Every structure is written in structure tokens, then in C-alpha cells.
């Protein structure tokens, strides 16, 4: 089963959900803010796309961190993991896990190629 990870208030996540709904692609939605992020899921995502790709340094959450936490996340993998676990909105989104791969962000062409 395809899983879409995001947050309800994210416009790009809404676009991704609409694209999946429009093309009748079955999926499960996981709201990172409401349902959270655990170590197992984080490691799965890191294994698929890498820590640097997952860390959203343009997010509101990132900008609200103090400089020491930002520096720790940039220079230390464990620091980045800890911050992401404590603040799941630090993950780039949406994240679409097809089982074979994880697509970071909404790319209409990649979503159009998904099985219906």
C-alpha cells in the first residue's frame, strides 16, 4: 500500500492528495503532526532518500530553532535525527512511499506514473 506522509496545513501535501485522489490511486495518509514520527519510520526514510534530503531547512519549524540546534542538525546525523523525532515537521513533505521508493516533494509526473 502506498503511504503519503505530510501535514494537513501544507499546500503541497494537499496538491499531492488531490493528484492521488483524482487518478484513483489507493493510499494511506499519515499526518506527521498528528500521528507523529518514530525511530523505525525515520530510519526507513533515511535509508531510502538520505538524511540531508529529508531535513527541511526552509520550514517554519527550522527557522524557529536556535542557531545551536540548527548547527547540530547540519553537522551531526544523530543531532538531526533527534530534532526530527522531536519535530516531525522538519521533514520535507510530502513524502510518498510506494514500497519500492520514496518520492520527496510533489512531482506531478512521478505521481502520474503510479499504479491506479
Per DSSP, what share of the residues sits in E-state strands of 2 or more residues? 5-15%
Q: Which parts are unreliable, with pLDDT below 50 for 5 consecutive residues or more?
A: none
* Largest sheet properties: 4 strands, mixed
In total, the number of strands is 4
CATH superfamily: Glutaredoxin
CATH class: Alpha Beta
The helix content is 40-55%
Quickly count the helices: 8
Which sequence of strands runs across the widest sheet?
2-1-3-4
Whole-number radius of gyration?
14 Å
Number of domains: 1
Indicate the mean pLDDT.
94
Give the termini separation: 11 Å
CATH level-two architecture: 3-Layer(aba) Sandwich
Order of helices and strands: EHEHHHHHHEEH
What shape does the CA trace take? elongated
The helix/strand class is alpha+beta
Give an account of the 3D structure.
This protein has 116 residues and is of the alpha+beta class. It has a single domain (2-112), classed as 3-Layer(aba) Sandwich (Glutaredoxin). Helix content is 52%, strand content 14%. Strands 2-1-3-4 form a four-stranded mixed beta sheet, sandwiched between helices. The longest helix has 12 residues, at 11-22. The chain is elongated, with a radius of gyration of 14 Å. The N and C termini lie close together (11 Å).
Amino acid at each position: 500500500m502506498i503511504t503519503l506522509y505530510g501535514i494537513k496545513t501544507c499546500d503541497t501535501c494537499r496538491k499531492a492528495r488531490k493528484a492521488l485522489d483524482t487518478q484513483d490511486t489507493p493510499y494511506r495518509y499519515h499526518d506527521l503532526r498528528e500521528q507523529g514520527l518514530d525511530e523505525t519510520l525515520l530510519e526507513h526514510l533515511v535509508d531510502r532518500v538520505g538524511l540531508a534530503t529529508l531535513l527541511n531547512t526552509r520550514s517554519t519549524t527550522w527557522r524557529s530553532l536556535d542557531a545551536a540546534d540548527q548547527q547540530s542538525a547540519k553537522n551531526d546525523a544523530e543531532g538531526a535525527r533527534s530534532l526530527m523525532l522531536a519535530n516531525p515537521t522538519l521533514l520535507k513533505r510530502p513524502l510518498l512511499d510506494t514500497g519500492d521508493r520514496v518520492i520527496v516533494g510533489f512531482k506531478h509526473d512521478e505521481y502520474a506514473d503510479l499504479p491506479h
